[in-house]
Each structure stands twice: as structure tokens, then as C-alpha cells.
Amino acid sequence: LDLLGSKVFNVVQNDMNGNIEKIRKCYDADPTKSHTLEKLVIDEQGEKKRPAT
Fold it and tell me: Which residue of 26, 27, 37, 45 has the lowest C-beta tally within 10 Å?
């Protein structure tokens, strides 16, 4: 979905879509653990590996 309407923003749009996919993947893995974006970030703070943040 191209909401920005310009090829200039392809890199930014692809980066944003990649970030959304990472967040969705973490949510799908355990919806109760990361039911909000804030909760996901807080839970990842203690980990060395941060796939979504």
C-alpha cells in the first residue's frame, strides 16, 4: 500500500513496513506478553537481543 504516493519514499516505506513486520512477529509469538507496544518495549529492555525494538 503506497500512501505516500512517491517513489522517493520507497526506502522509508520499506523500513517502516519491516519494523511493523518485526513487531507483528513478536506479538504473534506471545500476544499476552506484548499486547501493547509499550509492553513489548519494556519486556525487551532486559534482553540482549531486541528483535522488535
Answer: 45
